[in-house]
Each structure stands twice: as C-alpha cells, then as structure tokens.
Amino acid sequence: MVFERMPLEDWFDKYQYEVDWDIGESGMKFLSLNDLGFELGDVDLRYGYHLGAPELREIISKQYRGRTAENVAVTTGASEANFSIIAHLVGKDDHIVVEHPTYPSLYQVPRSLERDMSLLHLTWEDDFKPNMDELEKLIKPNTKLVTLTHPNNPTGSQIDENSLMRAIQLAEENDFHLMVDETYRDLTFKDPPPLAATLSKNAISITSMSKVYGLPGIRIGWAVADRPIIEGIRAVREQMTICNSQLGEAVALRVLQERDEILRKMRNIMLENYEILKKWMDNQQWLEWKEPEGGVVAAPRLKQGGPTRELCKLLVDKYRTFVVPGYGLEMDEYFRLGYGGEKEELIKGLENLGKALEELYS
Asked: Whole-model pTM?
C-alpha cells in the first residue's frame, strides 16, 4: 500500500504561487478575516469535539430535512470526509464505483488502499452526466460504495433528480451506500436536485466550505448520513486528525449564521463572471466546451484535439497565468478553467489564454 502524489496537487504546488493571474482555481476567490469582519480573540485554542462543535453541527443539520446534529460529522475539508467514508465502508474484499472525472482523491484513495474499483466514465456525448444504465452494469455483489460529484468538478455538469433517484434505488436494491459530493450545490444555474442524505438511509451527502464560500483556508467540510456512518467517520478521524481547528470551526459557525446573505453575494459574482467567460468562449476559435450548469469550473478542450500541458505550461512561464492541465485530472485533452475569482483577474487571465492559444495554434 503506497500513497503517491496526485498530479493535480503537484501542479498546484509547483505553479500556483508563481503566477499573477489565477483562472484555474476551483472555488470562489478566497476571503480574509478582514473581509468577513470577524474578531476571533475569544476562541479557545484547545482540542475540539471529535465530530465538530455541537452548535456547528446543529446549524449544518438545519439544511437537511429530516436530519439532526446526530447525523453530521464536521471534517477537515471534504477530502477527509471522503477518505474516512471510503476507509470505513470499503474493505479489502469489497468494491467501489467512482464517477470520473472528479476530484482525484476520490479515485486515488481506493487505489492507494488497493481496493477493487470501477470508474463510471462521464462522456462528452452525454454532456458529462452520469449514465445510470452504465452504473448498473458496474455494480457487483460486493459493491459497498458509489461516489458521484455534482455539480461536477471539473466539468460543471449537474445530475438531474430522476438520475439521482435511480442511483438511490440501485443503492437500496443492492445494499450499498451512495456518496454524493454536493460542494457546489449552492451555486447552480437552475434548481438542483434534493440533498442526497435527505432521500435515503443509503445516501451520504458531502460538502465543503472551500469552494462556494471562498474559505479553503479554514479546512472545514462535513458529511451527513445515518448514525453508523457518522460513527465510522469518527473512528477513522481519531487515528488521523482527531478534531478540527478551533479557529476554522469558529469561522464556519459565524459564516453559516449569515449563510443566505453570503451566498447571495457569491452567486452574483459567479453569474457576472460566467457571462464574461461565456462571451469569451463564444468569440474564440480554438476551444470548445460543454457549458457548465453549476459550480465555478469548466473543462474546455482543444478543437483540434491533443493534450493541453504545453498550453498550460506556456501560460505559466510566459504569461504568468494559471490553469490546470487535464493530465492532472486524467482527461489529457481538456484543461480546468475556474471563474470564481475577481472579475479583473478573470478578464486578464482570459486575455492571456487567448494570446497563448494564438501563439501555439495560429
């Protein structure tokens, strides 16, 4: 069992701090404590509750009809929730199905743990939406977990309610759990399907405050599920992180107390930036895409085909502009473009991207 570096994070580690213009990030522009206006001098820097502060779990649970604080585990970002659930549910003789593409840890963790894994491939022809007939074919008698991510990272596709209900039906009929990463759910262009964890005891909802809220630095996410899953998360966490940062939980609580107003502001920024991006995509000749339906990322590809690493490296080296090459997401002919940042940064980043495309392909 060997844990290897994820190419996506290796790219971030090498180049994100070497640029002036970032249009590859996958969330809203990060906020500061000054932006939020929070004073945190009264936060006790002690160990916290292993499942998260009771008041934080309580305010999270109010988003999930029929669930209570007992169904919530607050984790060190959504990544720890994903790791803990996979480690808890999928043993060495079990099977997992992972939607692909998605955030790489969702398939890298089963690989590192040497688990039997099948990939449910999202395709250009299906607008990057999961095909439930294909999912059914992948299910085995020992399947314990299926993971979906919608709105999808990096394509921005959105699962519809009928497909979600079909996936839940498959989970109930075949006695596995369905884990849905809903991190971008509050930034969709149309009404999203219901929260998965409100629909079935077999369903698990995962989310994070990193993307929609612009708070990756507080490292707070959560899982909502039946109590046995929550206890499994606690058991795994106690062998890794034990608890969350008290500062992170304090910021999360205060932000969620103002959730509606903060999300309103973020949504307005997202919609304005998306119009800029869409107009740019409509008026250039080298790229094509499936328009995203939510979140703040998209996955364009070269019309002429071929890998995108040369383009992304040129952007870094000559234009000091950051996007994510598709090889880091195991979709080499695409790249990830983010539009959750500041408007001026997006405009300048797209201008530089156009120059790099012209330099390479004109």
From this structure: 0.96
